[in-house]
Amino acid sequence: MDAALNSRNYDGTFVHEHAGQTETLRVIHRSGNASAERVVSMDGSGREFLRKGTELLTYLPDQRVVLVEESSDASLVLGNLPQMEASLTERYTVSEVQKYRLLGRDTRVISVAPRDEFRYGYRLWIDEQTAMPLKTQLLDGNGTVVEQIVFTSLSLLSQVPDARLEPAVDARGYRWLKREGATVVDSSAQAGWQAAHLPPGFRLTARNTRQMPGADGPVAHLVYSDGLASVSVFVELKPAADAGAVADNSTQLGSSATYTTLVQGHRVTAIGEVPPATVRAIALSLRAGQEPSLRAIREAVSGQAERDFGGSAVGGFGFGSSRGSGTLPGGGPAGAPGTGPGGAPGPGPGPGANPGGAPGRGGR
Question: I want to staple 109 with a disulfide (CB 3.0 to 4.6 A). Which of 97, 150, 257, 317 is the partner?
Answer without folding.
Answer: 97
